[in-house]
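Posted in: Protein Modeling Q&A

I'm a second-year student putting together a small comparison for a lab meeting, and my supervisor asked me to include a predicted structure for HTH tetR-type domain-containing protein. I've never done this before, so apologies if this is the wrong subforum. The sequence is pasted below exactly as I got it from our records. If anyone can share the structure token output, I'd also love a short note on what stands out.
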Amino acid sequence: MTASPRPRRRADAERSIARIVAAARERLGTDPNATTDDIAKAAGVGRMTLYGHFRTRADLVDAALRGAVEDGDRTLAAVDLAGDAYEAMRRLLVSSWALVAESAALLTAAQGVLPAGRVRELHEGPAARVGELVRRGRDQGVFRTDMPTAWLVGVVQHILHGAAEEVRAGRLEMAPGELSDMVTKSVLAVLAAPPAPGPSPAETPPGRAV
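Accepted answer (user: helix_wrangler)
Welcome! Here is the predicted structure, written out as tokens:
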């Protein structure tokens, strides 16, 4: 009895898909306007092969962004988030910024062809990690409690992605270490619990400055 060739064809197809997605991440990571022809050439496949796996450019961009987010999420899962939530958030932000800066052009490509809801859906994993850390910081008294967690998570994402776009567009030119420090400080300033209000003038003991 002759063995079925289907497993072989399936393995070949999976390898072809992997090459195409890897090429898409590489090309779109440097040029968000890269065409499917550019990507097919980088992957070493023909247009018919590419379109056999991805019917539209949007489908291919979706796969590329999904792969980048999944790889990034695995990297962030390895960040030590134990102990003080403020310092844990600092460590998470440093790693997050490195990943966001690396994929800024790819995200721009995705925002150009994918619905906003789909881009948010793909980032649910990283957003959930930030949200859990924000909630823990509230319990520890180091993060503010006067704004919804969902809003604070959204602000964190906007700062990271906004800074990456400014860098990509050439409007923000700083050394990598300075950029990371600036982004981290900006986010922590938003999240930090405001200082407790001091005594009113009427409550200030005589002879003590306010």
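A couple of things worth pointing out for your meeting: Residues 7-55 form a domain with the Arc Repressor Mutant, subunit A fold (CATH 1.10.10). The radius of gyration is 23 Å.
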